[in-house]
Amino acid sequence: MPTTLDQREEAPTEARTPHVRIGILGAGFAGLGMAIKLKQAGIEDFVICERDTGVGGTWWANTYPGCQCDIPSHLYSFSFAPNPDWTRTYPNQPEIKNYLAHCAERYGILEHIRFGCEVTGAEWDEADRLWRVHTSQGPLTADLLIGAPGGLSEPSSPDLPGLDSFQGTTFHTARWNHDHELTSRRVAVIGTGASAIQVVPQIQPIVEHLDVFQRTPPWIVPHRDRPITKFERRLYRRFPALQRLARAGIYWSRELLVPGLIHNNRMLRMIERMARRHLEEQVPDPELRARLTPSYRIGCKRILPSNDWYPAITKPNVEVVTSGIREVTPTGVVDRDGVEHPADTIIFGTGFYVTDIPLAKLLRGRDGRLLSEVWDGSPQAYMGSAIAGFPNLFLLVGPNTGLGHNSIVFMIEAQLNYVMDALCAMREREVGEIEVREEAQRAYNEYLQSRMGQTVWNSGGCSSWYIDANGKNTTIWPDFTWRFWQRTRRFDSGAYRLTAPARRPAPTTEPVTA
Ligand code: NAP
Q1: What is the number of the ligand 1 atom nearest to the C-alpha of 67?
Q2: Are residues 285 and 432 in the same domain?
Q3: Protein residue whose Cα sits closest to atom 28 of ligand 1
């Protein structure tokens, strides 16, 4: 493995490099869940590096007006930590953030978190059989690394021609600028995805004028969100089984979508009809309606629930621009018809880096190559977790664990059980190194890709961030979610190489205190 300048510089202070058994990257749903499971198993020797100053990951970072999860509250929580106090059937961002903060406190995780700690690189040290992690707060070493950066954590903004010349204010929905007053402004919102359709109805009443730049119309279905009454909340508190029942009902009703999503897209026509009716009811102008009607099968991109998106974009102070963006000028945005739309604020609701996650550019495996080089545009892992050539590394919410229809928390919990079982196997066999076999990883991914052809994500006629630079769907789990749970229920040691006695080099390192 090439020696980096960093390492050379660190060499003299090696003796003082803090060491942990497990390093977790990220304190979002997945990282916190992992920490809770470790605690529950009596493992205390771990640290979480979190670049932000609070817990919650994407739910900490996304504070835009109207930010809400489109998965029902009862299902969008850990199964082992139900929250009877959700105030709405679909949770809004502050409530999710508070829920996660509460979990971190309740399970004693806070003391393990280093906040404001950005990981800037990590490489597997073949000689010492540990990960050398570089962070903004100094180096540390870990026997095992668990990457939980979240699939939607790095905002992506397009590099529009002329953007540098813009004299107004720009920001991304995921980095909302709360100091920038929008009242009476002329605002351009770029994108019409999940975030934009929540922001626009919130800001439309206060801005002077709003131009919404739509590249592809989303499918919008009626939203079933409603307040949860105090009576219901009392019931859930008094009879937790009721909430478990509600959760199960939501889970299974969502699984009913899977056959349509993966086998027979025509089964989704019923939902398409519902969405068209919704559009007809809310947008009277046929010309605008035509521009808002998607030409791809519903489900190909995320199905978005909203009752206030269409009403907002049909208000007199809103224009929906669908001809595309030619350039940005110092004072506005010019569309492809050459019309300039004056603006003093540009808000990007343009999504995230998903198939090219920044973490992949930071991790170096056994042969010194970066994970991004190994992946070469197509992320792949075994069970969305383990990667050949990267020993003692597990990813959470890794490749092909994303969902278009159900709660990602379910997938996270399945992965947590898998990792915990792997740790058990390591302890029982007294081994210190674990690495998935390349052939197991290849077979698993060939199987996944063989299922993709018929899915709505691959054949639904849209382009989406589910598909990577090489045209592969390396984002979505193409099956019932309970099948993923089934596959990850037990650690399948046959797919792995478990080697090297569980030894630690003499304790030249200090334990980490966060
Ligand atoms: P997104 O769904 O990826 O939407 C990005 C939008 O920006 C799309 O309309 C896209 O158009 C447009 N866009 C991207 N680049 C553009 C360019 N160069 N010029 C013009 N338009 C451009 O991003 P998001 O809304 O942030 O949501 C991302 C994901 O986060 C969601 O799918 C969901 O999983 C999650 N999320 C969930 C919720 C929720 O639970 N309600 C809320 C927010 C986010 P095209 O469609 O043509 O690519």
Answers
A1: 42
A2: no
A3: 351
DSSP 335-395: ETTS-EEE-SEEEE---B--TT-GGGGTEE-TTS-BHHHHHTT----BTTTB-TT-TTEEE
Q: Is-contact 433 366, C-beta < 8 A?
A: no
Ligand 1 within 6 A of CB of 191: yes
- Antiparallel, parallel or unpaired: β 186-190 and 209-213: parallel
In a shared domain, residues 103 and 183: no
pLDDT digits (tens, 9 = 90+) for 394-431: 999 999 999 999 999 999 999 999 999 999 999 999 99
Say if residue 337 is exposed, middle or buried (CB neighbours under 10 Å; 0-12, 13-18, 19+): exposed
Given the CA of residue 71, which atom of ligand 1 is nearest to it? Answer: 40
Which domain CATH number covers 310?
Answer: 3.50.50.60
Nearest partner of 195 among 157, 147, 247, judged by Cα: 157
pTM of the predicted model, to two decimals? 0.94
Atom from ligand 1 closest to the CA of residue 155: 26
Residue identifier of the C-alpha nearest atom 46 of ligand 1: 216
* Most informative mutation of 71, 212, 302 for ligand 1 (most atoms within 8 A of CB): 302
Decide whether any atom of ligand 1 lies within 6 Å of the 69 Cβ: yes
Angle subtended at Cα 137 by Cα 135 and Cα 140, rounded to the nearest 5 degrees: 60
Q: Which domain range does residue 337 map to?
A: 163-227+258-348
Over residues 258-309, the pLDDT tens digits come to: 999 999 888 999 999 999 999 999 999 999 999 999 999 999 999 999 999 9
Cβ 147 under 6 angstroms from ligand 1: no
Looking at the fold, whether 385 and 421 belong to one and the same domain comes out as: yes
Distance 2 CA to ligand 1 centre (A): 39
Distance between CA 492 and CA 487 in Å, rounded? 9
Tell me the best of 152, 309, 406 to mutate to test the pocket of ligand 1, counting ligand atoms within 8 Å of each CB and taking the most. Answer: 152
